[in-house]
Design brief:
The chain is an alpha/beta fold. The protein has 23 helices and 20 strands. The strands form four sheets. Strands 10-11-9-12-13-8-14 form a seven-stranded parallel sheet, sandwiched between helices. It has a six-stranded parallel sheet with strand order 15-20-19-16-18-17, sandwiched between helices. Strands 2-3-4-6-5 form a five-stranded mixed β-barrel. Strand 3 and strand 4 form a beta hairpin. The structure holds adenosine-5'-diphosphate (ADP) and magnesium ion (MG).
């Protein structure tokens, strides 16, 4: 048998089971070995029934005396079993799982792990169980520390333990070392064969850590080698435009600012101009919380590009945002003598505009993904700016950049990405963080409003309108749907406009309106002709109306943390104290937790870290595309120390062996090549 043989080579695995295992990305014997436990259960200690105490978590080995199903109210049922060992009897109950009465026929032997409570005497509440067959195999599953695996339908812990034991016995000797000796020595990691045995069947739980870290480090090092190598390749092979960074337009722009840049903004501009002045193409991500002033930073890059006669394309994720950027850029760039045009999917004369872009008559083009379409060509595209970068796929970004000859590319995002994720997902880019807001900004005050206090809140909105301040009212849905309990923006708009908010000027904005209508509403809101704007999340990114100081978010528990933070960023953009009110009663603990996080902090990075803890890395933008959601051992949250080490080591390895040609790097080079494509 060979490591790369299909799992069906193992005794007991037929085509049907193999298909089930494939659901867990287990196709070969090697995959099976790399299907690592998610947890362990210490079964070296079996407690006698007579020795169990209330509140303790114990494992008992017992035989079923009898089991019955008890019907409860509604369609609910529970199973109650009487268990017996040499020392005595106790009950086990499974609430809501009456069908288990069938499983525990009298005489069934099993291990039960659970917490001791009371049900007509001592009882194990909803215990985990594992049926014992009385044969040889029970030794694998009892009296030791047993691995707990991620399962798939019709595959049990026992089966996995059996197959993995078979695999370990038959092919472990063939498993070659994947890490260089030096790494093993530096970190004191066990060699791969030993680590593999420990990770599945440890003799002591203390041994697991070094074994797991070994595999985690290996994955992280492979990823780092991949992203760093692709970046190096990108920078060496291509020859970018060398931009003029002390030209007249940049000077004029600097002189025309009516505020002082923050230090963080100045640093970001210096980073960008440094990239543009060099011969390697810029691939930089500017990360900065909502309202930190990324637009003006990006404008410096535009002015520099224009000084050298290069065109700039700025791509925004929505038409509303594109329009807003277009207006800002015209205001700022007209005085520099630059022609700014707009190109979106819904424009009436796109062909005319495209002609002006192709001829080079337009210096700056602002638009949506229409910019990336094949029809759009540039005369001399030297700078690409992708606003709210995470909203676009790698392909769209790439397609736009391909319209120039190695243009410099600047990405911006207001979604703060936890450091560990940025190092992997965006490992191919340089990152600048703008960690400072313009002076005088007051952090938005955020409060949760119970349902019975909403009348006061709407009165507050009316008061604010009288004072000349505007309000956003954000709802999760456009129309009433089957999910009746959610507040739909249309009904809500109608009810409030003819009810508590009848005295103020209201309007409704959502994604299903046509673009002309949307633009019109946004323009009127900006001009202060609307007091309260009912909206869906279409206003989530970038919209900038300093006079809007209040935000109500209906059914706030329905939104993700990051999304709530983005929404909240629409207020607090002027010098007046702004407020954000989170409404509704969340139906889940997570929903409540999200609201608590928002109330506790306005720091986008802290929010992102909390979000990572709450949702796990798989939910983050870009993580899945990058293939990072199926890491086998590494945990992007817990393993930040290992990640730092991997990053350093990758740099060192690439410095001496850029091709990863050394034989001991063979396996790492394979992982690395999978991750080279992340770079965009
Ligand atoms: P974001 O980073 O969310 O894209 P914007 O670029 O839209 O933020 O900037 C938000 C607002 O802050 C704009 O009205 C902008 O003119 C203003 N602004 C940017 N930088 C400064 C600064 N250094 N001082 C004062 N106001 C600033
Ligand atoms: Mg912005």
């Amino acid at each position: 048998m060979n490591l790369n043989d299909p799992v069906e080579t193992l005794t007991g695995i037929g085509p049907k089971t193999a298909a089930l295992l494939a659901n867990m990305s287990v196709a070969t014997v090697r995959d099976l070995l790399f299907h690592m436990p998610r947890d362990y259960q210490d079964r070296t200690r079996i407690t006698r029934i007579a020795d169990t105490h209330d509140g303790e978590t114990v494992t008992i080995e017992a035989e079923t005396v009898n089991a019955r199903q008890i019907r409860l109210r509604g369609h609910m049922s529970m199973a109650v079993a009487t268990l017996r060992d040499d020392s005595g009897e106790m009950q086990a109950t499974w609430f809501g799982r009456g069908f288990l009465a069938q499983t525990f026929k009298p005489g069934t032997r099993a291990l039960f792990t659970g917490t001791v409570g009371q049900y007509k005497g001592p009882c194990l509440k909803n215990p985990d169980y594992e049926l014992l067959s009385g044969d040889e195999e029970d030794r694998l599953n009892t009296g030791r520390i047993v691995p707990i695996y991620r399962l798939t339908e019709r595959v049990t812990q026992r089966m996995l333990r059996r197959w993995i034991t078979l695999a370990l016995d038959q092919v472990l000797d063939d498993l070659e070392e994947t890490l260089p000796c030096e790494s093993l020595a530096t970190y004191g990691f066990p060699p791969i064969q030993e680590a593999m045995r420990i990770i599945h069947f440890p003799n002591a739980l203390e041994d697991v850590r070094a074994a797991r870290e070994r595999f985690a480090y290996e994955e992280l090092l492979g990823i780092q080698l991949g992203v760093q190598r692709s970046r190096a390749a990108h920078q060496h092979e291509t020859k970018a435009n060398i931009h003029i960074v002390d030209g007249p337009r940049l000077e004029t722009l600097r002189a025309s600012l009516d505020f002082a840049l923050t230090q963080a903004q100045s640093r970001a501009i210096a980073d960008i101009l440094g990239d543009m002045a060099s011969a390697r193409p810029m691939a930089r991500l500017i990360q900065g919380d909502v309202g930190c002033g990324k637009t003006i930073v990006a404008l410096h890059a535009v002015a520099a590009a224009a000084d050298g006669g290069f065109q700039t394309a700025l791509m925004a994720p929505t038409e509303i945002l594109a329009e807003q950027h277009y207006l800002t850029l015209r205001r700022m760039l007209d005085p520099l003598g630059l022609t700014v045009v707009q190109l979106t999917g819904s424009m009436c004369k796109p062909a005319t505009i495209r002609k002006r872009i192709a001829r080079g008559e337009a210096h700056v083009v602002v638009g949506t993904n229409a910019l990336a379409q094949e029809k759009t060509t540039f005369q001399r595209l030297g700078l690409v700016i992708v606003d709210e970068q995470h909203r676009f796929g790698v392909c769209q970004r790439g397609a736009l950049a391909a319209k120039g000859e190695y243009p410099d590319v600047l990405h911006t995002t207001a979604t703060p990405i936890p450091r560990t994720l940025a190092m992997t997902v965006y490992g191919g880019m340089d990152i600048t963080v703008i960690d400072e807001l313009p002076p005088g900004r007051l952090p938005v005050k955020t409060r949760r409003i119970p349902t019975d206090k909403t009348a006061d809140l709407y009165a507050y909105v009316v008061d604010q309108a009288r004072l000349g301040f505007q309000t956003y009212i954000v709802c999760p849905l456009v129309d009433e749907s089957e999910k009746r309990e959610l507040v739909a923006v249309t009904t809500h708009f109608e009810q409030l406009s003819s009810g508590p908010l009848s005295g103020v000027r209201t309007a409704l904005l959502h994604g299903r309106l046509d673009v002309v209508e949307k633009d019109d509403i946004m323009r009127r809101f900006k001009e202060g002709k609307i007091d309260a704007l009912f909206s869906t999340t279409v206003i989530e990114v970038g919209v900038d109306v300093a006079n809007a100081t209040t935000m109500l978010i209906e059914d706030a528990g329905q939104f993700g943390v990051t999304q709530l933070h983005q929404l909240r960023g629409r207020v607090g953009r002027g010098a007046t104290q702004s407020h954000c009110f989170l409404l509704g009663t969340p139906k889940t603990d997570d929903g409540l937790r999200r609201i608590e996080i928002l109330c506790a902090t306005t720091d986008g990075f802290e929010i992102a870290e909390q979000d990572l803890l709450l949702r796990g890395p798989g939910e983050f933008q870009g993580v899945r595309q990058a293939g990072l959601s199926d890491l086998r051992a590494a945990d992007l949250i817990r393993d930040s120390r290992l990640l730092d080490a991997a990053q350093r080591d990758a740099q060192r390895i690439l410095a001496s062996d850029p091709e990863l040609a050394a034989p001991e790097l063979r396996y790492l080079a394979e992982t690395a090549s999978r991750f080279e494509r992340i770079n965009a």
